[in-house]
Write a structure and sequence with these properties.
The protein contains 6 helices and no strands. It has 171 residues and is an all-alpha fold. The protein starts with 7 loop residues before the first helix and ends with a helix.
Length: 171
């Protein structure tokens, strides 16, 4: 027997009764906004960190950047899967402000690059990300969104600690 013989609404009702109604409910506007902002922030941090694997004079900056690419790509992939399940379209490119940050970084090298990357991508971006994810971990109405934010938050807090140490070292 195939499922195509049953009306789609009956299949959805049956699945919702097994998986729970939240599995098929569209996320709230604030949860959707969180996912889009998280994707935007992650994209910028990944692109900036790819630059930082090539341009720094300090090996600690290069190591930090490698960790950022690894962790943020993993989170981005998880977020893409979540967004796909929730039928949310995520931004795929940096916004104008992030493009300006990336362009500024491209124009720097050596110690100047190290300082700017540690301050803007390391500390400032992670402070914003921690605030964003902390808020969603506490207030998201969609349980999957809340779980993603809660799961990712400790990694971002660790990144912020690492970034603060890196920025202090590169002043």
């Amino acid at each position: 027997m195939t499922l195509t013989r049953f009306p789609k609404h009956l299949i959805a009702i049956a699945l919702a009764s097994v998986l729970g109604p939240a599995a098929y409910a569209a996320p709230s506007a604030s949860d959707t906004d969180f996912m889009k902002k998280a994707a935007q922030a992650g994209t910028m941090e990944i692109e900036a960190s790819r630059l930082a694997r090539q341009k720094p004079s300090d090996s600690a900056v290069k190591d930090f950047a490698a960790q950022m690419v690894k962790d943020h790509e993993a989170a981005a992939n998880e977020l893409k899967q979540l967004a796909s399940r929730k039928k949310v379209t995520l931004p795929s490119a940096p916004d104008a402000s992030d493009r300006a940050t990336l362009e500024a970084l491209k124009g720097l090298s050596g110690a100047a690059f190290d300082r700017r990357y540690a301050d803007t991508v390391g500390v400032q971006a992670h402070m914003q990300a921690v605030d964003l994810f902390r808020g969603a971990s506490q207030t998201a109405s969609d349980t999957d969104v809340k779980s993603f934010a809660s799961k990712t938050l400790p990694t971002l807090e660790h990144h912020l600690d690492m970034a603060r140490n890196l920025a202090a070292k590169n002043k």
